[in-house]
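Worked example

This section walks through a single chain of length 212. The input is the sequence exactly as stored; nothing has been trimmed or padded.
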Amino acid sequence: MVESKSIDALFEKWFKMVSPEFPPELIDTVKERARTIFTATLSGEDPELVVERIEEEFLERVIRESGSRLEDIIRRLELFANELSKQGEFKVVAENFVKFVFTLLRKILAVYRKLLTEEFKAKMKAYEQIEQNIEQFAILVDQIRNPLAAALGFVEIYVDREEARMKIKGQLDRIAELVEQLEKGWIESEAIRNYLRGDIKNEVSTKENSYH
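Given that input, the structure is written out below as tokens.
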């Protein structure tokens, strides 16, 4: 197995390369956990047991707070493998490390799928709320337009004084203009709703394909 001093030197060199990708508040946690994980793997522990001890909550935090994509994590593992290959003991631990990488990636992929499902559910909930608001918006426009038309008719029939009739009609016309603006907003909202519907489906499809 690789000696502890060699593991420490290897780890420090690797972490210096990847640490800029993590926010400051995450660096210490990642450094501590990653050192433990790599040390255990290179010391000969069963890779599957090593990966089993990695909490999904930790992986979720790394993904969320660092904005890591699956390809970012693969690249970091490749960097470590490249540095490991320069060690004299590489052949002894190579098989163990390869098994560790594939086991870890399977676990990370499961976490990504979980996060994707949660993100999709959140977006669909927001979309459904928007859809409900748009429907209520359309009803409101109709509810305003109908009594407004009746009010204009009453003014023409029952208000005799020209000056008063014109003032009331002017205000009602102003309300009618606002209703038209509301209707225009409703049409634009419909377009936004249709866009969001397609955008959510496309985004989910793209992410699912990238994780396979």
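What to look for: DSSP finds seven helices and no strands in the chain.
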